[in-house]
Design brief:
single chain; 395 residues; alpha+beta; four-stranded mixed β-sheet; 7 helices; globular
Amino acid sequence: MRILKIKEKLTATIFLGLLAFNVFAADQPAVFKPSAGQFNAYKAYTHAEYLKKTAEQAGGTNKLLQTRTLPTEGADPVVTPALDHLYTKAVIDLTRGPVYLELPKVEGRYFSMEIHDQEHYATYYKVRPSGKFVFVNHTDTTKFPSDVTVIKDRGYYPHAFIRTQLFNASDLPKVHAIQDKIKLKGVVGTIAYNNAIAWVLATHDMYPQNAHVLDDQLGYNEETQAKMFKYIADYSLTMKNNAGMFEAIDDPAGSNDPVVRAAGILGHLGLPVAAAIYGGTFVDCDGKPLNGDKDFTITKNYKPEVSEFWSVTRYSGVTRNTIAGHNDIFNAYNTKPDANGNITITFSPNEPKDLPVGHYWLYVTAGEPYYFISRYYGPTVDADTLAKHNDYCKK
């Protein structure tokens, strides 16, 4: 592992991360306008904190953390968690050599693996992977048997995220059996640091496109993080889907806009658009933020253009997570279409009476903001086409 080479300039630069604000005259309000470095620091900081927390929950690095029940009611550190599947996660630790993973062959349900690096790029994803895998640092020249898939990472702490589809509560034993067949082998370690940005720079080789972008962000702290979260949350209101947010840095479908990439943190660990399209809805048809004080109804095609499955999940705008004690999701497995092949969902604090076939209700808290994510796994059309075909506000 390469040695941290920036310690000697830490004292001289620690304050620079606090100077990324525009300076205005005293009689004008300050406007927070993040720099490119702060957008990248927002990703690196959030993901580093997630890696540390996940490793603690798992009992160390190179240990599987299995979600055995749906991650509802804020029970999972993933922001805006999907409720379509159970998670199997691991913080891979390559500081003491390669790490091995073995996956079972899964049929009849969605099963995928995705790898994110420390800059929050999805460097690898595959639907229904199986067999043997090995994780290595990109400088490792070790030769492995031909039946082993080698996954290289620019850092020493890639994150493995495995999704196993869950149809309903009675399906849990079958999903648990699949999870139990997932095997990870590597030296168990821990993650400890005092400065998240310094840790990332010490343990991850920045992409040439992002060279030095974090060098002046050593002063990035919780206060800046809070401002960045608000900025990105406000920006997310303009986003239509996840196009460009998660792809590998050299994937043509990925965005070169640091704001778009930072917005991906609100859907932390999301899949690239070729694997899944996420349509976030934060405003009503008048362009006003969704709020529980006003009922909102959508109608969508029960069979959209997907090869896998779809879902609609509602989240609190306050916690960015699910709402305790209430159903949060509808999909093809717990709904039936109406005579026109559609389903209609009403978001309201009060359950509508005598709902006809194909009509459903999702609770929202009166007076509080909320949003919902429409997920389309295995899209067979591009994001813009899918969005047009599922435009909830078209006349």
